[in-house]
Amino acid sequence: MKLKKVFAITLSACLSASMVAGCSTGSSSSASGGAKVIKIGAFEPTTGENGGGGLQELLGMRYANKTHPTVKIGGEEYKVELVEVDNKSDKTEAVNAAQKLVSEKVSVVLGSYGSGVSIAAGQIFADAKIPAIGASCTNPQVTQGNDFYFRVCFLDPFQGTVMANYANDHGAKTAAVITQLGDDYSSGLGSFFKTAFSGLGGNIVSEEQFQTNQTDFKAILTNIKAQNPDIIFAPSSITTAPLIIKQARELGITATIAAGDTWENSTIIENAGTSAEGVVLSTFFDEAEPANEEAASFISGFKAYLKENKQDEIIPAVSALGYDSYLCAIKAIETAGSADGSAIRDALKGVSIDGVTGSISFDENGDAKKDMAFIKTIENGKFKFLTTTTVK
């Protein structure tokens, strides 16, 4: 989006000094016609390896902005302007995208899909005193030591344990783990699954890693086949997932293939075809099980919105989380009664909402207090709800 003329003089200085000076403090302004405006940043990948998932998350934020286009600050109504940047699924580009949001003087940031880019940008937001609310970035490091980062999803230690419990409950005694080298989400979730599964008495018979942009997995899958595991846990991107799934089945591997929340994406089914049948995953939301009235309203309205935008009408969990992150942002802005980032950060600590994915409030680390995950499988070319799971 174009920078407003009123900021033209100061922005050139802020671009280079915003991390150390006060230029990045969130502010409000008047749009043409006199309407007051507050900016919320959408920090998401819309290109690169995670572009598909990032767009789904962004669609939830855009829809939230459509249904909640204004916020009241001190009794006055402000228009919420969603400022979108593409972090390109890349840690270096994430820094550039974060700096752009700082220069745009956003008051709060939403995102990102992908823990690695969220971690990379975290210190920039903290230095600029702009609170960020992650939607689906599940790695614990996103919020650790960062008083300005919050999130509305559950964490990978929980998700890894949930999937280990599921594997154990369904008779799996041996497991293979496949993770992406250098990817915080993949390596973190794989590690948490391994620890939890071993703790339940399971045996990890193979641990394999692959490089970013790798497309041939037959060598590591051949190693896994020789170990004949009951389950393969392979948390990875939606780009990599169908390749792993198809090549595993082509090699005659019959083990259950499982992963985390990133695999709840229809493109995996489209690209893996019948090989995707029986895949199991954990996720944050199921449209067949609305948590409350807000969820029921979201489901019907968002389906219509997806249709208008020529998108698949199956609601991804990350879209619901994107919507909830926006709700938390406007609730915090209203509670703070200010566009100032530090004031909004302080307000977020006490925010409590009934969101689409359930009740949301934050603990001392800025993490959502959540204790339930949805387990789904792929059956007849569709995601099918199996059960909800909690970890005590």
What does this structure look like?
The protein is of the alpha/beta class and 392 residues long. It has 2 domains: 5-154 and 291-361, 3-Layer(aba) Sandwich (Rossmann fold), CATH 3.40.50.2300; 156-283 and 374-390, Response regulator (Rossmann fold). The protein contains 12 helices and 16 strands. The strands form 3 sheets. Strands 1, 2, 3, 4, 5, 6 and 7 form a 7-stranded mixed sheet that branches. The longest helix has 20 residues, at 317-336. The radius of gyration is 21 Å and the shape is globular. The termini are far apart. Mean pLDDT is 91; it is low at 1-24.
What helical percentage do the residues reach?
A: 25-40%
The total of beta strands comes to: 16
Shape designation: globular
How many separate structural domains? 2
Measured on Cα atoms, how large is the radius of gyration?
21 Å
Mean pLDDT: 91
Distance between the termini: 45 Å
- Stretches where pLDDT falls below 50 for ≥5 residues? 1-24
Task: Note the beta-strand portion.
Answer: 15-25%
Task: Specify the CATH homologous superfamily of the largest domain.
Answer: Response regulator
Number of helices: 12
Provide the structure class. alpha/beta
How are helices and strands ordered from N to C? HEEHEEHEHEEHEHEHEHEHEHHHEEEE
CATH class category label of the largest domain = Alpha Beta
CATH fold label of the largest domain: Rossmann fold
Summarize the main sheet. Answer: 7 strands, mixed
Q: What CATH architecture of the largest domain would you give?
A: 3-Layer(aba) Sandwich
